[in-house]
Amino acid sequence: MYPTISDLINDLLGIYIPLPIQTFGFFMGLSFLGAYWATASELKRKETNGLLKPIQKTIKLYQPKTIQEYVIQLFFGALIGFKVLAMILNYDDLLADTQGFLLSTKGNFIGAIIGAGIAFYFTNKEDKEARKRTPTEKMVQVYPHELMGNILLIAAITGLLGAKIFHNLENIDDLIADPIGALLSFSGLTFYGGLIVAAYAVLRYTGKNGVPAMHMMDAAAPGLILAYGIGRIGCQMAGDGDWGIVNLAPKPDWMAALPNWMWSFTYPHNVIGEGIQISGCEGRHCFELAEPVYPTPFYEVLMSLSIFGLLWGIRKKIHIPGLLFSIYLVFNGAERFLIEKIRVNTTYTISGKHITQAEIISATLFIIGIAAIIYLIRKHQKTVGS
User: Fold this and answer.
1) Could you tell me the pLDDT band of residue 59, with boundaries at 50, 70 and 90?
2) The total number of structural domains that make up the chain
């Protein structure tokens, strides 16, 4: 396993470069970029085909800075400087526990003063330039794909918030035992929580900017499953605990030519320090599972990227708004429901049956997807026949 990007580089090149970049976080960043690319590409295609239109917006030019804007800029400048200088001066501590360092109150007040000074300089420079001209208003056309920067930011913030909320609801005992640690930790993220909350926030924002919900969902569908697949690469490579149940069964004959870890794996050097001590290993990440488990993140990577390939391949052939997203819901729900059968997760007992939060949501999404496909096709046939 590669808890950090430095571990990965060292294994590939034999060179250890101390970088404060967690492997899971790195691939999470790549997942957002993947979603950005796929969704922006689809929005542009829909614009070219005349399915999406630009909206008129009024922008204000050459507006003098307000006191509130000065205060906000100085605050964030000071906050960045406070952390950045502390990171530079305490680089070893940052490497030892990047997440803990970033979320702590550790900082440098001289850095805060420098950061605030830099922020003031650029804000004041911009203010002086604006005051040399007459404030004006201008009408501009904004195309849907030009909203992608804001969409990505909204999805990232609300998605992480939703993923954290759903995880804590699923693990309420851990939240009660350590509420601050549970809320601030980057570990423990529930995908469906992020999907639901982010989808609501993004559709609310794009709807206000004239993008029909059905077209927005269709444009986002391939990017969503692509991002999920890329994110699962990070789970597999870091060993973040999203693995399967114990698998002591012999490897099937049809997998004979494949590496053993594709069937069962102990996740040595996993990032969460789960399992037993590895003999002769020194350092923070010296544990592996006592018994091998199904490498479910790897399976999800394969399934997710296959679903992405399918959606990307059929997207131009589907002309019913909302249908591509409905197909995504069916495949996404089926993929997650099936993987839950061999994946470690918190279960609920309902009518004597043990079921996970993800099974409930994935089954619901599957049913909604099937129902939506039937409804949309019938509605389209009636429209065409009338």
Assistant:
1) confident
2) 2
Give yes or no: residues 230 and 303 share one domain. yes
- Is the model's pLDDT at 182 over the cut of 60? no
Handedness of CA 130, 136, 137, 138 (dihedral sign): negative
Domain end marker among 101, 116, 133: 133
- Do 208 and 238 lie in one domain? The reply is yes
Looking at the fold, whether 236 and 123 belong to one and the same domain comes out as no
Residue 99: what pLDDT?
Answer: 77
Residue 324: exposure state from Cβ atoms within 10 A (0-12, 13-18, ≥19): buried
pLDDT score of 175: 56
- Kindly state whether residues 87 and 107 are assigned to the same domain: yes
Chain centroid to Cα 173, Å, comes to 25
**Same domain for 208 and 147:** yes
Q: Is the dihedral of CA 327, 330, 335, 336 positive or negative?
A: positive
Pairing of strands 347-350, 353-356: antiparallel
Dihedral angle sign, alpha carbons of residues 111, 105, 169, 293:
positive
118 and 100 share one domain: yes
Tokens of 61: 């030019």
- Residue 39 confidence (pLDDT) above 90: yes
356 is in which domain, residue-wise? 24-59+140-245+294-385
Q: For residue 109, how far is the Cα from the chain centroid?
A: 32
89 and 222 share one domain: no
Q: How far apart are CA 366 and CA 372, in angstroms?
A: 10
CA–CA gap between residue 214 and residue 322 (Å, rounded): 5
CA atoms within 13 A on the CB side of 227: 25
Q: What's the CA gap between 216 and 52, in Å, rounded? A: 9
Q: What is the pLDDT of residues 327-352, one digit of tens each?
A: 999 999 999 999 999 988 766 666 77
Looking at the structure, do residues 73 and 184 belong to the same domain, yes or no? no
Which pLDDT belongs to residue 191?
67
Amino acid at 226: L
Check if the beta carbon of residue 320 is closer than 8 Å to that of residue 380. Answer: yes
26 Cα distance to chain centroid = 11
Rounded CA gap, 371 and 330, in Å?
Answer: 10
Tracing tokens 């070219």 back to the chain, one arrives at 48
pLDDT tens sequence across 191-210: 667 888 899 999 999 999 99
